[in-house]
Amino acid sequence: MISASAAFLATIPSPDRGVWHLGIIPIRAYALCIIAGIIVAIWWGERRWVARGGTKGTIIDMAVYAVPFGLVGGRLYHVITDPELYFTEGKNPWNAFAIWDGGLGIWGAIALGAVGALIACRRKGVPLPAMADAIAPGIIVAQAIGRLGNYFNQELYGAHTDLPWGLEVYQRFNPEDPDNLLNGVATGHIPLPESPVHPTFLYELIWNLLIAGLIVWADRKFKLGHGRVFALYVAGYTVGRGWIEMMRTDTANHILGLRVNVWTSILLFLAAVIYFVLAGRRGLREAPELLAGKDALAVPAADAAAEDEDAVKVPAEAPVEKPAEETPVVDEPKKTDES
Question: What sign does the CA torsion over 265, 266, 267, 271 have?
């Protein structure tokens, strides 16, 4: 007979909580994971952009637009696809703005994030497809890091399982707000009835890292360009997201028997494959000089101005003063006394 302690060790335990308080300031694991993912995506994207011939700092400038747009888009997608969580009887509509409690749809984040990136690319004068290729691996690694936030929130898991890597999900308690268990604390490690469960967040995390490795390898081997790295990322991610989504047991809307995100994955997979094939007709990567954008045009102008300032100025020659012409002295004739 297997003891309770042995059974516990054969599963993955959940954290006791997902939020800590520094005085009155809540420190949320979900938010920290999202921030960490964004930092990794920007750092890696910057390195890839410069390696392709782009100007240093361009990815950071792009992130100023893309990140806020992406966060808004991710939240909008979540709220639109799961409106019953916020707009049904007994729910608080204002919680639709509580992004710190979890709930970001990756497709909304990508869609509006792309709008922000497009604005930045137009301002910088660089091609958006090349920008997308540079940041694609960083984006999917950021998604993997973000899935750790779901682990701390005890969300997005699957059905019951007896596999050794099953996830133990504990009951959390929140005396101040009994309905807000997300911000509660698990005391006594009391498992939920369906525990242990499939850690679908972990499945997706591992899948994302594998796809990141795949697209980096393909990019190096085949010199992909014109948005094909990004298309490969979308195609690879949606394959995994589709089957992992069907394992989840959290509440979701269905269309023709399939979850909304499954249909989204199918449609985006097809679109990504079509784009990958069509973009391949444009040849290899974009020329490096195209990635420099307007910054490259500003440098020669600045250099020319500097050269003008440093040019040796030849002083104008002072006019040579001609010596004053001497007036010839004419001897006056001597006067003679005439008688």
Answer: positive
- Cα four-point dihedral sign 255, 258, 261, 263: negative
Residue 307 pLDDT > 90: no
- Hey, what are 56's tokens? 């240093």
Instruction: Report the distance separating Cα 275 and Cα 229, nearest Å.
Output: 11
Kindly report whether the peptide bond that precedes residue 196 is cis, defined as omega within 30 degrees of 0.
Answer: yes
pLDDT in tens, 52-65: 999 999 999 999 99
Residues 6+ apart with CB under 8 A from 113: 66, 67, 69, 70, 73
If you average pLDDT over residues 64-71, what whole number do you get? 96
CB atoms within 10 A of CB 278: 13
Q: Is the dihedral of CA 91, 92, 93, 99 positive or negative?
A: negative
State the sign of the Cα–Cα–Cα–Cα dihedral 104, 107, 112, 115.
positive
